[in-house]
Amino acid sequence: MTNAQDGPESAVLEDLTSAHASVTLLERLADKLGGRASVAAVHGEPAVGQGVTIIPVARIGFAFGGGTGREVNTSRIGEGGGGGGGAGAQPLGFIEIRNGIATYKPIRDPWVGVVVPLAALLSAIAAPRLARRLVKRRTP
After folding, report:
1. CA-CA distance, 97 to 10, in Å (whole number)?
2. For a Cys-Cys bond, which of 32, 64, 83, 95 suits 55, CB 3.0-4.6 Å?
3. Strongest mean pLDDT among 25-39, 75-89, 107-121
């Protein structure tokens, strides 16, 4: 005699319960992370002083995933699980409000001010030399 709980319906029910638990876990993670992902978490609250208000601007993102598994075949025993996630924040700039006028001021990467001019200088030096070599190769 077989137990009613050992049939295929039981396996499907357990799989659905596992899937529901995974979805519930992911929803809870999304709620908790989403509630904490804000500009204030990166920079703090807007600052006010001497008639000027500074409001920070940032790009914030997060991602997460999870999984579950279960072997239904009775000849194998299987379990599953897993999950992971990450978050990141990048300051972009700030909004300065002075005398009722709002101005966005981006925060630039300091290397851009060094690398771009350096690359232009090196290509300006290398281009004539490269052109001369190409001309010499084409001349029989």
Report:
1. 63
2. 95
3. 107-121
